[in-house]
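Sample log: Cyclic pyranopterin monophosphate synthase.
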Amino acid sequence: MTLTHLNQQGEASMVDVTDKDITDRSARAQSAVAMSAEAFAQLQAGNNKKGDVLATARIAGIQAAKKTADLIPLCHPLALTKVQVDFALDEVTKTIHISSFCRLAGRTGVEMEALTAASVAALTIYDMCKAVDPAMVIGPTKLQEKTGGKRGHWSAGDGEEA
């Protein structure tokens, strides 16, 4: 079985995963938001006028992962069993590091869901802090690791493409 986003007429279509085995699958992704010292200090102190930036970004990332099929054309709607979004603050570089994790038992992977969670969390941080620092930089955003499916385990440290 060849997986492709093209149907027999050469048109874009969702991949048919009916014959794929159901396996436990997971993915981790990361992103980052670099900001000014003033914006970072405000976020760290919890003084942002829009509220708790990281709590809001966490919820936004989780919601986004659950809605990935509505955002990315041809993605399968998935029944995720776990979505986690975490943050690490780097005081030296004034950067918020974002890590997302998604898991399910299914016929297709959750890479797009993990990437969407990390991306939307970063965009939410930007949105909530832009009044103080509209020059924030988002990224890089990348897949760190995936498990399950035909390929099994893949990690960015393995030197292979996902």
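Observation: The chain has four helices and six strands.
Observation: The first helix runs from residue 37 to 45.
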